[in-house]
Design brief:
L-arginine/glycine Amidinotransferase, Chain A; 15 strands; Dimethylargininase; dimethylargininase activity; DDAH-like; alpha/beta; hydrolase; three-stranded mixed sheet; amino acid binding
């Protein structure tokens, strides 16, 4: 199953040697095997390439432990890109190289303080843009995005979320008017117009999936959700994500796709 949408590029950034020092909301960040994390990231990039995407790579920076999570630093809408202002102050510097990269490809806009915005809170479904109001993205950030893109035909819908990092930690789009959703983190009525796959509570990490050109990438080890997605007619590819999960990262976090 696929929609008439073909993505062409993916911006990725390598896992830094300092990855263990990444920012998480965990009381104690689990011990991360950085070498294995790099392997998982390499396989992720290889899969994106196999699915027809041209990779645009940014070198890792050991001064920025979270830099592999490129999604949070920019959002792309057609011929424009918005450079975000992450809600975690230590991550703001990650946007510098991202802006240099996108400047060659897109017209650049910026989110500016007191606004905060992270790309993990931005769910794009055609011209409908759902933005999570989270600990990382505030109301002013949502307003600034709306001011930039609504005159260009997009509709921005704020989504209040709770007890989770980002909107896309608990809700992602599969295609064909279907979303993948963990219940209990937002008002589900906001997505009443969509068909839904409800992710089993014990498999909540699998709420974050990544659809690329008709294929659905999911983290390995979540058989119930895998079956639910396949039963809807989607073609699934599993990827090992355990060392990414330890840093509160997920499939969408590792790239900006357009």
């Amino acid at each position: 199953m696929t929609e008439n949408k073909n993505d062409e590029f993916a911006i990725v950034r390598d896992v830094p040697n300092s990855y263990q020092q990444c920012v998480t909301s965990f009381h104690d960040t689990p011990l991360i095997n950085v070498d294995v994390a790099k392997q998982h990231h390499q396989q992720y990039c290889k899969t994106l390439s196999q699915l027809g995407l041209k990779l645009i790579r940014i070198d890792a920076d050991d001064a920025l432990p979270d830099c592999c999570f490129t999604e949070d630093t920019a959002i792309v809408f057609g011929d424009l890109a918005i450079i975000t202002y992450p809600g975690t102050p230590t991550r703001v510097a990650e946007t510098v190289e991202m802006e240099k990269t996108l400047l060659q490809l897109k017209k650049i806009y910026h989110i500016t303080p007191p606004a905060t915005l992270e790309g993990g809170d931005v769910l794009k479904i055609g011209k409908n843009i759902f933005i999570g109001n989270s600990n990382r993205t505030n109301e002013e950030g949502i307003k600034q995005v709306a001011a930039i893109i609504e005159p260009k035909g997009y509709k921005v819908t704020p989504v209040k979320i709770w007890n989770t990092l980002h909107l896309k930690s608990v809700c992602t789009y599969l295609g064909i008017n279907c979303i993948n959703l963990s219940e209990g983190y937002l008002d589900d009525e906001i997505f009443s117009a969509f068909d839904k796959i409800i992710v089993p509570k014990e498999e909540g990490y699998c709420a974050n999936i990544l659809e690329i050109n008709g294929k659905v990438l999911i983290p390995k080890g979540f058989p119930k959700t895998k079956s639910l997605i396949e039963n809807k007619g989607f073609s699934v590819i599993e990827l090992e994500m355990s060392e990414i999960e330890k840093a509160e990262g997920a499939l969408t976090c590792l790239s900006i796709i357009f």
